[in-house]
Write a structure and sequence with these properties.
By secondary structure, the protein is mainly alpha-helical. It is about 55% helix and about 0% strand.
Length: about 90
């Protein structure tokens, strides 16, 4: 599931044109010729778009994503008690 989430996050960073060609080929299982018909372009143009979109997708996916910051648990201050058991830290 993490891979699917990574792919989805990467796809939304691409242009609509890149997303469209990747979805037509990858999800809809169209050939480059069929995708060209849907897009209203030549077979060659569809193949070029696909190549460029795949290259951009790979670049986005290879860029490390920042981790979601989760706040560190609060550390007790010296001399304070934890309240539950009155144990000093």
């Amino acid at each position: 599931m993490a891979a699917l989430a990574d792919l989805t996050a990467a796809l939304v960073q691409l242009s609509d044109i890149d997303q469209e060609i990747l979805r037509l080929i990858g999800w809809e299982q169209l050939t480059a010729g069929e995708a060209a018909t849907v897009l209203g372009c030549s077979h060659t143009a569809a193949k070029v778009r696909l190549h460029r979109a795949r290259r951009r997708l790979a670049a986005v996916m290879s860029t490390p994503r920042p981790l979601t910051a989760t706040p560190a648990p609060a550390r007790p201050v010296a001399g304070q008690t934890n309240g539950a058991h009155d144990v000093q830290y």
